Amino acid sequence: MTTSTSTPAQQDSLVPEREEPVINVGVLGARGRMGTEVVKAVNAAADLELVAMVDDGDWLFNVADAGAQVVVDFTRPDVVMDNIRFCIDQNIHCVVGTTGFDEAKLATIAEWLEPKPDLGVVIAPNFGIGAVLLMRFAQEAARFFPSVEIVELHHPNKVDAPSGTAVRTARLIAAARRAAGLPAAPDATKEADSLPGARGADIEGVPVHAVRLTGLVAHQEVLMGAEGETLTLRHDSYDRASFMPGVLLAVREIGRRPGLTVGIESLLGL
Ligand SMILES: NC(=O)C1=CN([C@@H]2O[C@H](COP(=O)(O)OP(=O)(O)OC[C@H]3O[C@@H](n4cnc5c(N)ncnc54)[C@H](O)[C@@H]3O)[C@@H](O)[C@H]2O)C=CC1
Ligand SMILES: O=C(O)C1=N[C@H](C(=O)O)C[C@H](O)C1
């Protein structure tokens, strides 16, 4: 069903030591690239029970009927809000890897959660531990470098561009720069003599470039420059198994984290 060569132990490297009751898990987007990997990882985890696999055209109520306590969503940006609404209505915790969230959508989800104080939604643009660390390192370094650009590189079937990770990284860098009193690079992507698009997308003053290439999975570089030196931070996901420890951590933790959590940094103790 998948091409991953990782072992269950590798996929479950953040498994807790303590004994916990089994958690019933439903997967939305179960036949997709990520959903397939999640199904495999949940099946390999002794403390998780896969109770429902739902894909496009399937009956969404299957997850509720099957008694899912946590749903994992890797679907599409245009359907994920409806899925989250459904899960909240059904009192099911939601771990969401699907991309495409802006502040307005996050605020809507927080509103939906208000009357359900015990329910949790975790939305993470990237569940890869290395990618989360890259974002943190980029934030740390941002105030020391006047120039910064992001290059994200993915498989050619990716639905969105730029990636959710690149958008979040750019916003975190921009916030760190503002906090340090650095100016946003003025019109960083709009040089007078450039072909439109040649300087990438402008996200809060950070140019973001998206590469789509057969052979790639998910990769990101943050390039920072100062007089006479550059710093390059790079992360590579060569296999979708790399996202699974983060996904399983969120599935196990969400019952203890009511409300909306964006990113898995807090779950990792960062
Ligand atoms: N947060 C993270 O760590 C990661 C996030 N992603 C994101 O996850 C999303 C999915 O990526 P892939 O798995 O590569 O896409 P994919 O296209 O392989 O899979 C999406 C699946 O969702 C299904 N689907 C569509 N509408 C549905 C609905 N209403 N209900 C249930 N299933 C539905 C599709 O039929 C498909 O099987 C994208 O937004 C991607 O950016 C991908 C990798 C890692
Ligand atoms: O679609 C993908 O593949 C990925 N999507 C996420 C994103 O948009 O950031 C995470 C990772 O980059 C893989």
TrEMBL record:
It is an enzyme of class 1 (oxidoreductase). It catalyses: (S)-2,3,4,5-tetrahydrodipicolinate + NADP(+) + H2O = (2S,4S)-4-hydroxy-2,3,4,5-tetrahydrodipicolinate + NADPH + H(+); (S)-2,3,4,5-tetrahydrodipicolinate + NAD(+) + H2O = (2S,4S)-4-hydroxy-2,3,4,5-tetrahydrodipicolinate + NADH + H(+). Its main location: cytoplasm. Keywords: Amino-acid biosynthesis, Cytoplasm, Diaminopimelate biosynthesis, Lysine biosynthesis, NAD, NADP, Oxidoreductase. InterPro entries: DapB_C, DapB_N, DapB_N_CS, DHDPR_bac, NAD(P)-bd_dom_sf. Pathway: Amino-acid biosynthesis; L-lysine biosynthesis via DAP pathway; (S)-tetrahydrodipicolinate from L-aspartate: step 4/4. Residues 23-127 form the Dihydrodipicolinate reductase N-terminal domain. NAD(+) binds at G29, A30, R31, G32, R33, M34, D56, G97, T98, T99, A124, P125, N126, F127. The active site is at H154 (proton donor/acceptor), K158 (proton donor). Residues 130-268 form the Dihydrodipicolinate reductase C-terminal domain. Transmembrane segments: none annotated. The keyword Acetylation does not apply. Gene3D superfamilies: Dihydrodipicolinate Reductase, domain 2, NAD(P)-binding Rossmann-like Domain. Its EC number is 1.17.1.8. (S)-2,3,4,5-tetrahydrodipicolinate binds at H155, G164, T165. PROSITE patterns: DAPB. Pfam families: DapB_C, DapB_N. NCBIfam families: dapB. Catalyzes the conversion of 4-hydroxy-tetrahydrodipicolinate (HTPA) to tetrahydrodipicolinate. Belongs to the DapB family. PANTHER family: 4-HYDROXY-TETRAHYDRODIPICOLINATE REDUCTASE 1, CHLOROPLASTIC-RELATED (PTHR20836:SF0), DIHYDRODIPICOLINATE REDUCTASE (PTHR20836). Homotetramer. This is 4-hydroxy-tetrahydrodipicolinate reductase. The lineage of its organism: Bacteria, Bacillati, Actinomycetota, Actinomycetes, Geodermatophilales.
